[in-house]
Amino acid sequence: MTEPVEISNAELVILNVLWQQAPLLSADIVLRVQQQEDWHEKTIKTLLNRLVKKGALSFEKDGRAYRYSPILAQRDYQQRAGSKLINNLFAGSVAGLVAGFAQQGQLSDQDVAQLKAIIAEWEQQEDSSC
């Protein structure tokens, strides 16, 4: 997708179901979403239609049912949403975001180890490209 798509929190619930497994029939999506949320079937189908109109989902007719698949990749969405969050709340500073979590004690030892590994890998790539 070339143009960023605005996804609401409710639409994100639908996308998360389809990112876990796709394609899915609308009835299967309804069942999975209703395990997480107390939403009426019509609400879920409205959200599916919105996501189709936004270009985040595709569908095909399967008899009398519809089978949905994501067009918007989870990783692409996460990168765009993450960048938007960092720009809006931390003036574009990733360090500010991480520092905020660290200061609140919300970084586990595993988080710190993963961040160190990511930075080390990035530094190796930078060194090899110079």
What does this structure look like?
This is BlaI/MecI/CopY family transcriptional regulator. It holds the Pfam family Penicillinase_R. InterPro entries: BlaI_family, WH-like_DNA-bd_sf, WH_DNA-bd_sf. GO terms for molecular function: DNA binding. Belongs to the BlaI transcriptional regulatory family. With 130 residues, the protein is mostly helical. Helix content is 65%, strand content 11%. It contains six helices and three strands. It has helices spanning 9-20, 26-36, 41-53, 74-90, 94-103, 109-129, and strands spanning 24-25, 57-62, 65-70. It has a three-stranded antiparallel β-sheet. Strand 2 (57-62) and strand 3 form a beta hairpin. The model has no long low-confidence stretch (mean pLDDT 92).
SSE inventory with pairings:
Elements: H1 9-20, E1 24-25, H2 26-36, H3 41-53, E2 57-62, E3 65-70, H4 74-90, H5 94-103, H6 109-129
Antiparallel strand pairs: 1-3, 2-3
Helix pairs in contact: 2-3
| Average pLDDT rating | 92
Low-confidence stretches: none
Q: What proportion strand?
A: 5-15%
The run of helices and strands is HEHHEEHHH
Broad structural category: mainly alpha
The number of distinct β-strands equals 3
Biggest sheet strand order reads: 1-3-2
Q: If helices are DSSP runs of H or I spanning 4 or more residues, what is the number of helices?
A: 6
